[in-house]
Design brief:
disordered C terminus; about 65% helix; about 700 residues; ABC transporter involved in vitamin B12 uptake, BtuC
């Protein structure tokens, strides 16, 4: 299916929705009961007590919207620049008329609310009014038409083509997952109606079903994107997913499937906790040291399966899964009230440590290392037999054996399985405290004056530095690009000042969002620079694409595998900066309830993000929005739970694995053209004549 046919079908579907689907919600009550408006001037009341309002301009909105949608659908039959111009103009008209109609609707609702308050009402009527399904579809079709119509400008055509190919699979997969989840929502959640209201016709039933589906998705996304409190909570969910998504994506780039992020998270959290609790140092020392300990803990745990893969060919999927269980058991042991060993078990642990030390010593002696390396599998088999024999012998019970309690000073007093809190110097400041808010003295929402120009200016400079060469070829040189970026930042800051956004009072809700988000963003930038701006990153990606070709080119496959898994583990371990150092759980301590499921969710984040740092950031934010929205979904709808979101995320992964069921010619037209040329070149003239009729 090409883009013209897809847009035409979507436009025709939107025309149908303008007649049978709600255009706006006049009132929404507790329990998802609603009163909805359909074009033109029709009200369907499921609450049983919503007074209708006279909303002007609805006939005009319907007629102009249908004309614009017909033009968008008909443009698919045009050729060349005329098609793009029609898409562009019709898209602008469609968005403008929809915005105009919703603005009139909003004015009428606000006037009715004000009149009710002046009449003595205790609360304004027409709560949570706003656009509904058909208006949203009009915005979507108009936006797509404008994007496709921008191809009329030669400089944007190639950029848009690359953009569409980059987002085709993720966007299609998300859309298919939303459709499949919508079926489940409609099965589970009946249409909510008020007392005395009955659904008496198939028409009313259809409208109720469509509005239930729309309101479920609106709740899912608007709970995070419609308020500052929800947005901050979505970022709180996003932060650890950035770390685990980068960990999985980094492994993918090297041709390795890192499923060990949960275990690497645990080891990173243990490392950060040990430094934060037991290392007395000033903040300037202990804070970076704790971050480094988190990276080292996860990195070492990732290096083990990497070394096993490089040295013995042991599959990293099996090894990382098994090491997740070991890490989980180690977390239980560390946070248990008594770290008790039986004497035979302790002797077996000592034997393992002795063998590990001997292995390190022997690897440092070059003649022995070369001799043992001639038959690595035989060496490993003999070492395994000797180790098992020594463990069996040392594990035999002896007279006088008694349990040995290590009594590690890690667990905090009490019944909760958690460690002592880390030192205040090792903690990341949470957002309210960063803005000077003391939640103990002033709990709840606090209003502070924020200069939004300060964070916006460097972001604009970074955007200009990255996009500048694509807009103006002369900006491909460093100094002109840097000057243009600084100019863009200065202009942006002046614009923010003109709009009054450099001293804007903002209501800050309580949130656990902390400085680990900055660490996550820096990690994404570092991964990008490492993979795409260094020689080693090029070698690593070459190993992931074709190990044999990379080895033929002189790349050390084994070393790259170990380093890739080490860095991937370090990225997953850095999630401890959020949970332990950032206090994202109940307090600043290591808890048994560490949400290691984020490690598995990171697989979906990496796949949805196309295993690129930028894609991981966007995918992690989407997953954060959905996870936060799942909480609101559970509260708003009686028969829907957060499991709906879990199912949706799983469906996204499945559809990504199927590449959104998109054709190869759409995803990679150059490769498809080359294959077609090869097939044509391999045919005889007679065969080509038969094939082409």
């Amino acid at each position: 299916m090409n883009e013209r046919l897809a847009l035409a079908m979507l436009a025709l579907l939107t025309i149908l929705s303008l007649w049978i689907a709600p255009w706006a919600a006049l009132n929404r009550e507790t329990g998802a009961r609603s009163a909805v408006v359909l074009l033109p001037e029709r009200l369907v009341d499921f609450t049983g007590r919503t007074e209708p309002l006279a909303i002007p301009g609805q006939v005009t909105v319907l007629i102009v919207s249908v004309v614009a949608l017909v033009a968008i659908a008909g443009a698919a039959r045009l050729r060349g620049r005329s098609r793009y111009w029609l898409w562009l103009l019709a898209g602008i008209v469609l968005i403008a008329i929809t915005a105009y109609g919703l603005a009139l609707f909003g004015e009428v609702v606000r006037a009715a609310q004000q009149a009710a308050l002046e009449a003595g009402a205790r609360r304004p009527p027409y709560q949570r009014s706003g656009m509904a399904l058909s208006a949203f579809l009009s915005y979507v079709v108009g936006s797509l038409a404008i994007l496709l119509g921008l191809r009329v400008f030669a400089g944007l055509g190639a950029l848009l083509n690359r953009l569409f190919r980059a987002v085709a699979v993720p966007a299609t997969s998300i859309a298919l997952a939303l459709l499949a989840t919508g079926v489940v929502i409609l099965v589970l959640q009946p249409t909510a109606v008020g007392r005395g209201v009955e659904i008496t016709s198939a028409w009313m039933y259809l409208i109720g079903r469509l509005d239930t589906l729309w309101y479920a998705y609106q709740t899912l996304f608007a709970s995070s994107l419609g308020s500052l409190a929800g947005f901050l909570e979505a970022l709180t969910f996003t932060t650890p997913l950035i770390f685990t998504g980068l960990a999985v994506a980094f492994g993918f780039r090297a041709g390795l499937f890192n499923i060990g992020a949960p275990g690497q998270m645990i080891m990173g959290a243990i490392g950060a906790m040990l430094v934060g609790v037991f290392v007395p140092a000033p903040r300037v020392v202990i804070l970076p040291l704790a971050v480094l300990a988190a990276a080292i803990g996860g990195g070492l745990w990732g290096a083990i399966p990497g070394w096993l893969k490089a040295r013995f060919g042991a599959h990293e999927v099996v090894n990382t899964i098994l090491m997740n269980f070991i890490a989980a058991a180690l977390l239980l042991f560390v946070l248990s009230a008594e770290q008790v060993f039986t004497a035979p078990a302790l002797r077996m642990v000592v034997v393992v440590l002795i063998f590990a030390a001997l292995a390190v010593v022997l690897s440092l002696i070059q003649p022995l290392r070369l001799a043992l390396g001639k038959a690595p599998r035989l060496t490993l088999a003999l070492a395994g037999v000797l180790l098992l024999t020594a463990m069996v012998v040392s594990g035999l019970p002896r007279p006088g054996d008694a349990p040995i309690n290590l009594d590690l000073p890690i667990k905090a007093p009490g019944l909760d399985p958690k460690s002592h809190e880390i030192a205040p110097e090792a903690r990341f400041t949470q957002l309210p405290a960063l803005l000077g808010i003391d939640l103990r003295a002033s709990p709840g929402v606090n209003v502070v004056v924020i200069n939004y120009g300060l964070p916006a200016a460097p972001l604009l400079a970074l955007l200009g530095f990255l996009v500048g060469p694509r807009v103006a070829p002369r900006l491909r040189y460093f100094w002109p690009r840097a000057a243009a970026s600084l100019g863009l930042a200065a202009a942006g800051y002046l614009l923010f000042g003109t709009l009054g956004w450099t001293a804007l009072p903002t209501a800050i809700p309580p949130t656990k969002l902390n400085g680990s988000l900055i660490i996550a963003l820096l990690a994404a930038v570092l991964v990008y620079l490492l993979l795409w701006r260094t020689k080693w990153g090029y070698e690593l990606r070459a190993v992931g694409v074709s190990p044999k070709a990379a080895e033929y080119g002189g790349v050390n496959i084994a070393r790259n595998m170990v380093l890739a898994m080490t860095i991937a583990g370090a990225l997953a371990g850095l999630s401890a900066t959020h949970y332990v150092m950032g206090g994202a759980l109940e307090d600043y301590s290591l808890r048994q309830a560490l949400p290691t499921d984020d490690g598995f969710t990171g697989i979906a984040v990496a796949l949805l993000g196309g295993t690129t740092p930028g894609g991981v950031l966007l995918a992690a934010f989407l997953f954060g929005v959905l996870q936060n929205g799942g909480l609101a979904l559970n509260v708003t709808f009686s028969d829907l739970t957060r499991d709906v979101v879990s199912m949706m995320l799983a469906l996204v992964v499945l559809f990504i694995a199927a590449k959104g069921f998109l054709s190869e010619s759409l995803l990679n037209p150059r490769r498809e053209a080359l294959l077609e040329a090869e097939r044509t070149a391999g045919q005889t003239p007679a065969t080509r004549e038969v094939n082409h009729g």
